[in-house]
Amino acid sequence: MPDDSGGKNGAARQGRTTRRDGARQRKAGGAGRRGGARKQGVAGKPHPPRPTVAERFDAVDRLLDGSVTDADGLWSRATVWILRLALEQSVDELWLQVAPELARCPMRAQLLALRVFAGDATAAQVATVWAALSRAAHHHDYELAPSVTELRRWREQTAAIATSLATAATRWSDREVRTD
To answer: Element (H or E) spanning 18, and its range?
Structure first.
């Protein structure tokens, strides 16, 4: 007989309770993953602002040039994660200017909506690079870390995409100003 308490892998672990009728509800006081108050930093101070896309590219360049010596064998995966963050932040910046409600959607949904706002070619480039970075970011024992050549190519592609998305945001903002 199944256990309605949620068990180890059940609803209780996920911050939900199960009612007798089988429906799930959130526990009192628990905010959703994206909802609720913003997390505070050390001693209740707010987190510092996130780095800009340009600052992320500078960090990637330092990792690729070997300027960062503390990264040891993790520098290639760190580079991939920073590039993915820069790509996602570029998409977020587009949404903040043209459709703020889309910034809260999952990335895959954002990639679908991107076709309308940035065009088919740019949306396809974003989806391709995002998928490649996502795949490379996760370590598997049977896969090699990305090569420097791959990392440099992804860096250039991400920079080109960031420029295209900034241009698309400007076009949409100009369009809105003319229609008002």
So the answer is: strand 16-18
